[in-house]
């Protein structure tokens, strides 16, 4: 398809006049002429290791599906680096993927801070990056030329959750329990802004914020309990959110729980179990992504994932899958042109109403880097097929 492997290393060598020599010696780039390498990254260690594992698994399944179907004239490959959800390590991860591996494009970043750090590095270095998971609005406002997001931002998420909570529960007092990291702080800030706009008379209880990895929730939750909130918004990393919910219920906080997107991760579902029954949260896919989905392609996808990894895909796994589908669509739109950063940017900008099956279509443009603007509110119901599974019994509460 392409005259040469035109990854980052190939481009650098071409500019230095060394491409011919390197090719003759068998080096240069990450593979042969008919390969396109995705440089994936996410947390595989630390408190949110489950997020990176889910994203990697979903992305890898997409790579295998695309290659098996023969959708492209090239073979997709992916390497996946651990960023430990640490923005300070983004530089090292970026250099490994861009220089050592010779990736053609970046994809990943399950944590807001590390994804944003990578976005700034990639854009400054002229490398294209597709972010399937990060929710901060800074990923696309103002637009970064080389950075594209397929995720609904946290501001939209917060406004939808607040609207639903006000209409459904009509609370007089609301509270927040959350991880006091960039993700949690930004989510709570957005929700408070939405409350101020939509219901300025609602009382906000003392916050219960906790650092990642803590095992002590009692002191903060007692203050929240004593304020007697009618609704509590919960946001946090998967390994903390489940124990946080368990501690809240044990202390007698019987308010209606409303969850941000991290509610629908495998780690949260494992650790909270039946305590998530009747809890409503924000999710990204407006179709039933389960093994009994009415959409056969979606049902087959979830079955293949469970067969391969032993569990149903969570939201982040689906985002990883979708991210690779978007990259593959961009490769198709290259129509034989070299996968240079400039050509990849134009190809991504030309994507309109691209159906990834598990959510509303993705659309980009010259000044539009936010491919998805709609999600769904879902309530988990009792009687799910497994307490460790998202799928089995839920209802759509409201859509944007």
Automatic annotation (TrEMBL):
Entry coiled-coil feature ranges: none
UniProt-listed GO biological process terms: amino acid transport
Matches recorded under Pfam families: Peripla_BP_6 (PF13458)
UniProt superkingdom: Bacteria
SUPFAM superfamilies: Periplasmic binding protein-like I (SSF53822)
Domain Leucine-binding protein: 38-379
Xref: PANTHER family: LEUCINE-SPECIFIC-BINDING PROTEIN, PERIPLASMIC BINDING PROTEIN OF ABC TRANSPORTER FOR NATURAL AMINO ACIDS
The protein, known as: Amino acid/amide ABC transporter substrate-binding protein (HAAT family)
């Amino acid at each position: 398809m392409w005259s040469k492997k035109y990854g980052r290393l190939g481009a650098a060598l071409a500019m230095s006049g060394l491409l011919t020599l390197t090719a003759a010696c068998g080096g240069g780039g990450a593979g042969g002429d008919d390969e396109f390498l995705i440089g994936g990254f996410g947390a595989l260690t630390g408190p949110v290791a489950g997020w990176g594992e889910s994203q990697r698994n979903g992305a890898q399944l997409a790579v295998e599906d695309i290659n098996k179907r023969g959708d492209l004239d090239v073979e997709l490959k992916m390497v996946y680096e651990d960023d430990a959800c640490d923005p300070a390590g983004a530089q090292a991860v970026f250099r490994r993927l861009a220089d050592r591996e010779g990736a053609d494009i970046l994809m990943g970043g399950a944590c807001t801070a590390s994804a944003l750090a990578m976005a700034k590095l990639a854009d400054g270095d002229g490398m294209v990056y597709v972010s399937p998971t990060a929710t901060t609005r800074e990923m696309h406002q103002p637009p970064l030329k080389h950075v594209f997001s397929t995720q609904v931002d946290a501001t939209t998420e917060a406004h939808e959750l607040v609207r639903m909570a006000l209409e459904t529960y009509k609370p007089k007092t609301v509270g927040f329990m959350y991880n006091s990291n960039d993700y949690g702080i930004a989510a709570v800030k957005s929700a408070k802004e939405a409350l101020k706009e939509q219901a300025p008379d609602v009382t906000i209880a003392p916050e219960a914020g906790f650092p990642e990895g803590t095992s002590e929730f009692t002191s903060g939750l007692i203050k929240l309990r004593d304020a007697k909130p009618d609704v509590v918004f919960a946001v946090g990393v998967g390994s903390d959110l489940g124990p946080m919910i368990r501690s809240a219920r044990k202390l007698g906080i019987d308010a209606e729980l409303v969850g941000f997107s991290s509610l629908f991760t495998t780690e949260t579902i494992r650790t909270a179990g039946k305590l998530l029954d009747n809890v409503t949260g924000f999710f990204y896919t407006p179709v039933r992504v389960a093994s009994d989905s009415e959409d056969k392609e979606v049902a087959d996808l979830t079955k293949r994932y469970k067969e391969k990894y032993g569990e149903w895909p969570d939201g982040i796994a689906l985002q990883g899958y979708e991210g690779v589908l978007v990259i593959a669509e961009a490769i198709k739109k290259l129509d034989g042109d070299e996968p240079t950063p400039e050509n990849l940017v134009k190809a991504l900008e030309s994507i309109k109403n691209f159906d990834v099956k598990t959510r509303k279509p993705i659309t980009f443009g010259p000044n539009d880097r936010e491919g998805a603007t709609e999600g769904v509110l879902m309530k988990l119901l009792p009687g799910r097929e497994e307490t460790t599974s998202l799928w089995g019994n839920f209802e759509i509460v409201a859509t944007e």
